[in-house]
């Protein structure tokens, strides 16, 4: 019975929370809302809170009896009651809005000084600006067409918030680039939706390879290939020594042995990933590198000692201190 109530609570959250958020935004904006609508909304909220208390309190009490602190027990209750996808969407939205603030002040999100950032927004920049233009036109047209003040105010708030979200999504992609560490490690990001860290010793090979995969921006094949596409294309392929774990945007987990992602400058990414693995050229032997005879065996001491490499001596004339020039040809 309690499990059914928990499922009903999740459905109520999906239905009530967006409507309550819209009402709060309208009230803050100064929109007049009829009393019946406010009463019905408050009744739904009270009912949902009662369901939450019925489901969450026994779980919270059980966690407290098991020795958890109040914070740990509260987080466990939230994880049990709120769907993972809903929690992830809320977190992504707040991160995107934070990225919009970083973009406004021309800063990036957690880019160390020793790391090299690589952008990946070029294929989607035009699409995002097109979406923004269409949203602005839609907002203006609806403001001129709809005659009802309440509907007009609600749609205006929703449209303006949609414009802000479009800017925030693009800002998250700009302020969170791919990173290549000084040790050759790789960090793949797609805005605030995806974040994957790959250590340097897990990278087997890197190459420039342009592909056009189908599906969404984060896609995993059956053979363990992760496609992190931007504008339906990838330009860099990374082969790994073993599978790496990652979390999808909505909370599902997966693993991959091959990574394909997009970078605006794929050759620079490949050069940065292969630079730490380049071997230094062998040094020439010097006289100091030859061990003394006291530390050699009798067989090695009997052999002649190698002479150091010196440049050939140039014969000088008695009159000059510079090399003599060849004789002039006969007249």
Word description of this protein:
The structure is a single chain. With 331 residues, this protein is an alpha+beta fold. Helices cover 47% and strands 17% of the residues. The protein contains 8 helices and 9 strands. β2 (178-180) and β3 (186-190) form a beta hairpin. α1 (2-28) crosses α2 and α4 (84-104) packs across α6. It is globular and about 65 Å long. Mean pLDDT is 81; it is low at 277-291 and 314-327.
- Please identify the structural class as seen in this structure: alpha+beta
Largest sheet: 5 strands, mixed
Total of DSSP H or I helical runs spanning 4+ residues = 8
Q: Could you say which overall geometry the principal axes of the C-alpha atoms support? A: globular
Determine the strand fraction and express it as a percent band: 15-25%
> Terminal Cα separation, in Å?
120 Å
Work out the helicity level. 40-55%
Low-confidence stretches: 277-291, 314-327
Radius of gyration: 33 Å
Provide the residue-averaged pLDDT: 81
What is the number of beta strands? 9
- In spatial order, strands of the major sheet run 5-8-9-7-6
The run of helices and strands is HHHHEHHEEEEEEEEHH
Observed structural traits:
five-stranded mixed beta sheet; alpha+beta; 331 residues; four-stranded antiparallel beta sheet
Short characterization:
With 331 residues, this protein is α+β, with helices and mostly antiparallel strands. The protein is 47% helix and 17% strand. It has eight helices and nine strands.
């Amino acid at each position: 019975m309690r499990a059914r109530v928990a499922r009903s609570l999740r459905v109520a959250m999906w239905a009530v929370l967006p409507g309550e958020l819209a009402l709060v935004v309208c009230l803050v904006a100064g929109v007049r809302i009829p009393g019946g609508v406010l009463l019905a909304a408050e009744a739904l909220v009270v009912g949902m809170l009662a369901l939450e208390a019925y489901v969450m309190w026994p779980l919270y009490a059980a966690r407290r009896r098991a020795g958890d602190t109040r914070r740990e027990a509260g987080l466990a209750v939230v994880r049990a009651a709120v769907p993972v996808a809903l929690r992830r969407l809320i977190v992504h939205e707040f991160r995107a809005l934070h990225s919009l603030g970083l973009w406004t002040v021309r800063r990036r999100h957690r880019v160390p000084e020793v790391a090299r950032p690589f952008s990946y927004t070029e294929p989607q920049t035009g699409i995002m600006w097109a979406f923004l233009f269409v949203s602005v036109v839609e907002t203006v047209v609806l403001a001129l067409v709809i005659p009802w003040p309440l509907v007009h105010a609600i749609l205006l708030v929703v449209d303006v918030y949609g414009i802000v979200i479009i800017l925030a999504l693009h800002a998250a992609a700009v302020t969170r680039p791919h990173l290549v560490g000084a040790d050759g490690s790789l960090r793949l990001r797609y805005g605030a939706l995806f974040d994957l860290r790959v250590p340097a010793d897990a990278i087997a090979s890197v190459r420039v390879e342009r592909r056009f995969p189908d599906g969404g921006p984060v896609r995993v094949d059956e053979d363990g290939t992760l496609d992190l596409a931007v504008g339906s294309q990838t330009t860099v392929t990374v082969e790994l020594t073993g599978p790496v774990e990652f979390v999808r945007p909505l909370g599902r987990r997966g693993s991959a042995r091959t990574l394909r992602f997009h970078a605006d400058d794929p050759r620079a990414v490949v050069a940065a990933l292969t630079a730490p693995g380049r071997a230094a050229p062998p040094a020439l032997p010097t006289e100091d590198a030859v061990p003394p005879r006291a530390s050699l065996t009798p067989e090695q001491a009997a052999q002649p000692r190698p002479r150091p490499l010196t440049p050939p001596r140039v014969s000088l004339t008695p009159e000059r201190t510079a090399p003599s020039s060849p004789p002039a040809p006969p007249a």
